[in-house]
Amino acid sequence: MSTFGSNGSTDAQIESHPMFALLESVEAHRQLKRGDVVKGVVALVGTNEMLIDVGGKYEGILASREFAQMSSEDREGFVVGTAVEVMVLNPNDKNGNLALSMSQVRIGQDWEDVDVLIEKGEAFEMVISGHNKGGLIVYLGQVRGFIPVSQLDQRHSVDRNAIDGTGSSPLARFNGQPMWLKIIEVDRDKNRLILSEQAAMRDRRKHLKSELLGKLEQGLVVDGKVTSLADFGAFVDIGGADGLVHLSEISWNRVNHPSDVLKLGQTVKVKVISVDRDRNRIGLSLKQLQPEPWSTITQRFLVGQVVQAKVTRLTDFGAFARLEDDVEGLIHASEMADEEVKPETVVQPGDELTVRIIRIDPERKRIGLSLKRAGEAYDQLGAFDAEPAADAADAQPVAVVADAADAQPEAVAADGAELPPEAVAPDQPSSDPEAVSEDQPDAEPAMAEA
After folding, report:
1. Residues 125, 133: contact at Cβ < 8 Å?
2. Which of 8, 175, 223, 418 is the most buried (most CB within 10 A)?
3. Per-residue pLDDT averaged across 69-83, rounded?
């Protein structure tokens, strides 16, 4: 029997064994390459490194950065013999070692979870992990996701000019907060995952709106938050679904644009005025929760009374002036001066004027004002009657409450041209094509089709 050190040593016997050649052949064919995911066992856990046996005489080292980032609790979970799954980062690094990673395997599994979410196409809720100057950051497992500022829901009213990566950034308030998101772009090769809150909220609102439409009833008063402003009105979130407050339902005052009265993110109380379940639309009103100004108009103003007014806008036939926050009156061009004048040569928007009320029509919600007859000389002339004669009833300049501005003397004809007031002042009886004759005291001005 051969002994160690002799010509027939044990090493020589093993090397000459036919199975040794077979093993060498198998190992030679097993060439690990970057990106391979293999199973192994922990061979050594040191102070600064972890060795992992992946079989076939291969022992790799866990990436030093990954090992250093492990918490003490995580390290204690790995003992010699613990089965692990690792990815090959480099089969032969600069030190000749097999560089391995466990976190990259988990990232691969997390990317598979991302693929599942994409297939479902559903919104999901995540907690915001941080922010930078471009947006918010979330983590789906080990995969880093990014939410650009442009993809945040408008209800947040974020001031983009103040955004930076510091703790004082408007985005800092989202850290640690849950947010509904939807995946809109993926590039695994570039480790790119883009998400959108806007897309998620669109989907959620459709679902919630369907549920809400089944519960809402006309006349309900609910709390909401302004989510969007448009030329025609404001959208208000009333519990996951948006309803529209039309421009005409924002205020009894004339409103040129919703932003004159409302701000994004503002909390408001609104009244449900219509529910269209077939078209999934909800109509809301702000002004119907406010006192209707014309219900007390005759208690606040009298024909012949001299008041202060502020010019709000000009037309070809006169100027509108606000008496109080909720009422506007019309100063017809013929009531600006004794001679014929153009309104812009006498007054301008913003001018504070002393005017006399020459007509109040509560039913039609109109007030006529006079600039030229505001002086004391007209106080005793008896030119102002609470009940004017029938043939003169429509011969006074008129005005409107703010919300009725589109149904007033300046109402448009079918071709879009502005019409003059329904009648002219007494000293110009034939200058208005719409003047009312004695046998037609109740004729109305032409109106555009809604």
Report:
1. no
2. 175
3. 82
pTM of the model: 0.45
44: domain CATH number is: 2.40.50.140
Q: What is the mean pLDDT of residues 201-228?
A: 86
The range of the structural domain enclosing residue 77 comes to 31-101
Instruction: Flag whether 93 is in a domain.
Output: yes
Same domain, 280 and 299: no
For 4, 49, 78, 293, 357, the CA distances from 104, given in Å and listed in that order, are: 46, 17, 17, 69, 81
Identify whether the C-beta of residue 209 lies closer than 8 Å to the C-beta of residue 240: yes
Mean pLDDT of the chain: 77
The CA distance from 85 to 37, in Å, is 7
Which one, of 322, 330, 154, lies nearest residue 251 by Cα? Answer: 322
Helix (H, G, I), strand (E, B) or coil at 218: coil
- Side by side, the strands of the sheet bearing 192-196 are 124-127, 178-187, 192-196, 143-148, 135-140, 130-131
Do 38 and 77 lie in one domain? The reply is yes
pLDDT of 44 above 90: no
Residue 319, H or E segment: strand 318-324
Model confidence pLDDT, tens digit, residues 155-195: 787 888 888 878 888 899 999 999 999 999 999 888 899 99
